[in-house]
Structures are given as structure tokens and as C-alpha cells.
Amino acid sequence: MDTLPASRNAALAARDLAVVWHPCTQMRDHESVPMIPIARGEGVWLYDHDGRRYLDAISSWWTNIFGHANPRIGAALKQQLDTLEHVIFAGFTHDAALELAEALVRIAPPGLERVFFADNGSAAVEVALKMSFHYWRNLGRGDKTRFVALTGSYHGETLGALSVSDVALYRETYAPLLLTPILAPSPDAYARAPGESWEAVAERRLGELRAILERHAHEICAVIVEPLVQCAGGMRMYHPRYLAGLRALCDAFEVHFIADEIAVGFGRTGTLFACEQAGVAPDFMCLSKGLTGGFLPLSAVLTSSRVYEAFYAEYGSGKAFLHSHSYTGNPLACRAALATLEIFRSEPVLERNRALAARLAARLAPLADHPHVAEVRQTGMIAAVELVRDKATRTPWPADERRGLRVYLHGLEHGALLRPLGNVVYFMPPYVITEEEIDFMVGVAAAGIERAVAA
């Protein structure tokens, strides 16, 4: 691999590695894997201090939906900076948070009429879990203390969010600190039998979920899912029929439906919210990431008036919801979110995304025949290529061979930020990407895959 020149890049990388501990990283890797200092961003591109640029194929952890340094969002933030940077959100309110709550209620699935703000995606999941449990407690159903999650799920890295996640590395490490969820088999279509359709997999898994609810509904607060795409679990995808069936089962067995739309909301799956594709509304919808266009941390949990009213009581009843963050409803973050929603309102974002998704599908199609590709799958502006050692048996590459890391390093050398999930090479680019940039992105990835699967 080409080494970075001895320059400002190298100097900044050395300073960073002397004091910073980066997320989701074995820091020792940086003895051989370069640390890339970024000077600025523009559109889909990130620029380092030596003038090299990298196409951000993953929207900087799935947040940056309208491009780096988006001028409309930036202008809204600059205006907000001159009026109010922050105010306590208990007993006080402000224009930006109020306008944002109203805007979210207008565009959300029907019945989601109350908005609770938090700081990030994991915090939103914590809020939804606590709110569901507390709702049942307020109704005298204190026996409901457990949650159902899907196998392969991921909902964040605070302890509550990890408790309803099923990523083996995390659960093995932190198991003594975590709640134990009831795991329902994922409707992941990758696991389908020969000749079985995505919808048939969903129906089969709904039957298994029904069996779980028949045994445990009395102790279950909620079922939590990532609608349509299990992102951190390997970009595994499933049919909308599962969401429709889940809604019906939750109603029948009196448990809540929590939709974690943190990664898949705001147009990523082809509709504004993934739940729309099943025509359902959850009891709680968690939003973050693209909410602010990638500018600032902010999350929101939307829920129903029915849930809200279970907490609305005299002070002495002890029914108030117990959750707060210092930066709840931060005006700067809310203003960035409003500017993001205004782009959706004023531009044909979803229509444009459909054309971009079609281009992405066309460019990825030839990889389906690759001898080390088990599947190419796509839902809207999310696409994934599953690398395997043996195509016929779908035998994966051993994890310790780190084939995905080879794709990442190839991408850096050739101007693309690709960050595979294990042996899954995926694409979640900003919506401002052009067709020509899609061609470039897939071309770099395809060459990186050839490098990765070489002996």
C-alpha cells in the first residue's frame, strides 16, 4: 500500500495517535493502517491536508445524507448561532425545537403525535425501551419487563441498546452488564431456502414470532426491530410483509412495536420512513443520523397520544417519565434538522434517489456472478455485496483473514471511503452523489474485492 507522504497529514496523524482513542477500533491496527486527517468536505468528497480526496461511500457512518458542508444547512446553523445556542429544555422551550416537533409529526406515520428529543441514536433507543416499560408499569402491568429483538440485530452501544442487540462480539464482552432479550429469528432473506421468496421467509419468521408471543406476551414490553435492513448486522434485508405482520401480532398480544429507523429513516430505503413500505405505524419510532443531515448529534422518539396520556397525571402519582439529557432539544441541532427537512420538502429527493438507486443496481449487477460473491442485495440507497470463500456453499471467509480490511485499504489508496462490515462490502452514499460518482465508487469497490479475494 502506498504510504502517506511525510507532510501535514503525517504530522496530524502522529499527534492524534498520541492522545486520541477512536471508536470501534483496535488502535494497534494503526501501526499499519493509515490514520487520515480530514481538512474539509464538499458534497460526497472528503479532502485531506495533502489535497487527496475520498468519496464518502458510507455517508460518514450513515449520517450525511445531503453532502458535506451543505450550504443550506450551514446557513441555517449560522443564523441560529446568532440568536440561541442552548437552553435548558425542562420548563423552557424555543422556536427550533417546537417547529421541529411539529414538522416530524406532520411527516411521520399516522398516530405518532408526540416527540421526545435526545442526543443520539443509542439514547433514542434507551428512551423507547424505558418509555415502553414505564407505560406498562403506569397501567399496573409491572410484570412486563422484557423485550423481544431479532437475531443479528443492532440498536446501539449504551447498555440498554446493547441489551436488545445480537452482535456476538458485544454480547460476549459485556454480557454480565446486559439485560437478556428474547431473540426471535430474523426475517433476513439471505438465509432463505432454495427457491424461497423474501416474502415467504417473512411469513415463516412471523409464525415463529407468534409462537414466542403466545408463550411470553405477559412479560414482554415491546418488540424492537430495524425496519427492512439490519444495518450493522451485515446489511441484511427483508420483506415489508414482516413489518405488517409484526404490527398485527403486537396488537393481538398487547405488546409495543418499536421501530428503530435511526439508520434507515429519511429516505434511505426508498420511502421517507421504512415502515411506510408496509403501511404501518409503530408505537415508538426512533430517529437520528440523517435527521440533521450529518451536521450535529440529535435524536427523537415519536410515540402516540395513548402512550403520552399514560404518563399525564398529578405529580404525586409518580407517573412522570424519568429521562433527561443536558443537551435535549439543542437549538443548533434542531435548526440543522429543520433545514434538512426543508430540503426534503422543497426538492424531489425521493424521486432522485430512485434514479440513483437504479444506477447503483445496474453497476453492481455484474458482481452477482463473481465466484466469491454470495449475494448482491439492495433496498433503496443501501446496497451490499456479501463476500464468501465458497459461492456454492456460501462458506464465509474466516474472520481473522480480514478480507474486508483489504477492500478498505484499497479504497483509501484509490480515493474512496469504503468501510466493510466484516466480509460485507456496502454502499450508503449521500443523496447528492452523481451517476458518474456512483460509477467511480463501484469501480473502486470492484477492484478492491478482486484484491480482497486473492489468495
TrEMBL record:
Which Pfam families does the record cross-reference, listed alphabetically? Answer: Aminotran_3
Q: Which UniProt keywords apply?
A: Aminotransferase, Biotin biosynthesis, Cytoplasm, Pyridoxal phosphate, S-adenosyl-L-methionine, Transferase
Mainly resides where?
Answer: cytoplasm
* A molecular function (GO) term: adenosylmethionine-8-amino-7-oxononanoate transaminase activity
Could you say which cofactors this protein requires? pyridoxal 5'-phosphate
What this protein catalyses is:
(8S)-8-amino-7-oxononanoate + S-adenosyl-L-methionine = S-adenosyl-4-methylsulfanyl-2-oxobutanoate + (7R,8S)-7,8-diammoniononanoate
Q: What is this protein called?
A: Adenosylmethionine-8-amino-7-oxononanoate aminotransferase
Q: According to the entry, what is the taxonomic lineage of the organism?
A: Bacteria, Pseudomonadati, Pseudomonadota, Gammaproteobacteria, Lysobacterales
